[in-house]
């Protein structure tokens, strides 16, 4: 920590006087000053001290905290370092008032479980404090979808993972996590469809979620996952929101549609709730972003279903117009993807013809 108390005053580690005793503002146990040529001066608990808010702090964490404090001050704000909040037994790295809100700025360098993050954010929310999470160097390696989701924040309405770079003393915005199922980078539509289809033939076992879905699909339409309608394929890159590839959620939705009678109708709110429900086991935990983070994938699938004439938007409601076509075999699907087939992917089963 960078701040300790002495005679009921808070003192910065860089301003300490020799021969004085300093105490942890949270647990009131004595702390020791540490400094060195390459070290940021800081206080540390004595060995064996049991303090609720003390974490092993790396040099990067101490340096970043100090830089953030200076950075905010230069912007004319009045940040406070390491304020202990006894009501929630938490000590944010920095507390700062900005645009009528109190913001807790956290510079996270050590591992943090999603459970712990949810608890910390819930604590801040209880006090009306808005948390802002900046990540350090250990989070620069390839992040799993779970970690991306855990630390995703909406900045200017856009999903973002924020970093604090201690080398440049600047905030960095990372938004490069968009992707399609089973594909890195942009690819031509037909190539992507083929790639996803091949991946679907391979991933039928192993993951419990996926094998349960495969079973449900088989029981509903008597086809394997890879024979799914073209409308199931996610062809526009999206922010990671699901535990498994997004295409599985889309297949789950389309399979659920197969079981609904034609002309079923939903209000837009019911439709969104239904899309959410179909994906319940699939969603990742977003500890720092609202549920509206899912709006983009909802809108995309809805637009694709409308374009494929599976559903129609009429009279302010979404109406199920036809059940999408599942291919009988892969040869038929590939032929349709390459444009050499008889376009059965677009063939829809409308109402049986009346005679
Ligand atoms: Zn302490």
Characterise the protein shown here.
- The protein has helices at 59-74, 114-126, 145-151, 189-202, 208-221, 246-258, 268-278, 295-307, 330-337, and strands at residues 3-6, 9-12, 22-23, 30-36, 39-45, 80-81, 94-98, 101-108, 129-135, 153-155, 158-165, 170-174, 265-266, 311-314, 317-320.
- It has 3 domains: 1-54, no CATH class; 58-177, Trna Endonuclease, Chain: A, domain 1; 189-337, no CATH class.
- Residues 341-355 have low confidence and may be disordered.
- Helix 5 runs parallel beside helix 6.
- Helix content is 31%, strand content 20%.
- Zinc ion is lined by residues 24, 26-27, 29, 45, 51, 54.
Q: List how many beta strands DSSP finds.
A: 15
In the residues, how many domains can be counted?
3
The description of the largest β-sheet is: 4 strands, mixed
User: Given the structure, what is the number of helices?
Assistant: 9
**Structural class by sheet pairing and helices:** alpha+beta
Strand content: 15-25%
Q: Any idea what the shape is?
A: elongated
Strand order of the largest sheet: 6-7-8-9
Radius of gyration: 27 Å
What's the structural blueprint in terms of helices and strands?
Elements: E1 3-6, E2 9-12, E3 22-23, E4 30-36, E5 39-45, H1 59-74, E6 80-81, E7 94-98, E8 101-108, H2 114-126, E9 129-135, H3 145-151, E10 153-155, E11 158-165, E12 170-174, H4 189-202, H5 208-221, H6 246-258, E13 265-266, H7 268-278, H8 295-307, E14 311-314, E15 317-320, H9 330-337
Parallel strand pairs: 8-9
Antiparallel strand pairs: 1-2, 3-4, 4-5, 6-7, 7-8, 10-11, 11-12, 13-15, 14-15
The structure holds zinc ion.
Zinc ion binds at residues 24, 26-27, 29, 45, 51, 54.
């Amino acid at each position: 920590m960078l701040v300790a108390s002495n005679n009921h005053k808070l003192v910065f580690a860089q301003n300490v006087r020799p021969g004085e005793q300093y105490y942890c503002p949270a647990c009131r146990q004595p702390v020791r000053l540490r400094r060195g040529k390459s070290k940021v001066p800081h206080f540390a608990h004595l060995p064996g001290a049991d303090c609720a808010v003390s974490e092993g702090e790396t040099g990067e964490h101490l340096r970043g905290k100090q830089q953030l404090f200076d950075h905010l001050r230069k912007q004319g704000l009045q940040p406070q370092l390491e304020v202990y909040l006894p009501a929630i037994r938490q000590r944010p790295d920095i507390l700062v008032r900005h645009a009528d809100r109190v913001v807790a700025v956290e510079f996270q360098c050590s591992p943090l479980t999603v459970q712990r993050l949810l608890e910390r954010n819930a604590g801040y929310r209880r006090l009306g404090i808005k948390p802002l999470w900046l990540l350090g160097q250990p989070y620069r390696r390839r992040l799993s979808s779970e970690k991306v989701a855990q630390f995703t924040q909406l900045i200017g309405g856009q999903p973002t993972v924020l970093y604090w770079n201690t080398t440049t003393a600047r905030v960095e915005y990372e938004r490069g996590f968009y992707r399609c199922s089973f594909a890195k980078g942009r690819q031509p539509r037909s190539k992507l469809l083929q790639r996803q289809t091949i991946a679907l033939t391979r991933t039928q076992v192993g993951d419990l979620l996926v094998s349960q879905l495969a079973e449900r699909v088989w029981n509903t339409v008597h086809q394997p996952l890879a024979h799914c309608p073209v409308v199931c394929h996610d062809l526009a890159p999206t922010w990671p929101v699901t535990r498994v590839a997004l295409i599985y959620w889309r297949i789950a939705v389309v399979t659920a549609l197969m079981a609904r009678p034609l002309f079923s109708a939903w209000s837009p709110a019911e439709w969104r709730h239904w899309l959410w429900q179909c994906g319940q086991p699939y969603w990742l935990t977003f500890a720092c972003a609202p549920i509206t983070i899912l709006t983009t994938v909802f809108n995309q699938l809805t637009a694709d279903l409308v374009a494929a004439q599976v559903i129609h938007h009429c009279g302010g409601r979404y109406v199920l117009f036809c059940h999408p076509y599942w291919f009988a075999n892969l040869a038929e699907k590939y032929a349709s993807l390459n444009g050499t087939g008889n376009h059965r992917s677009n063939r829809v089963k409308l109402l049986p013809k009346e005679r």
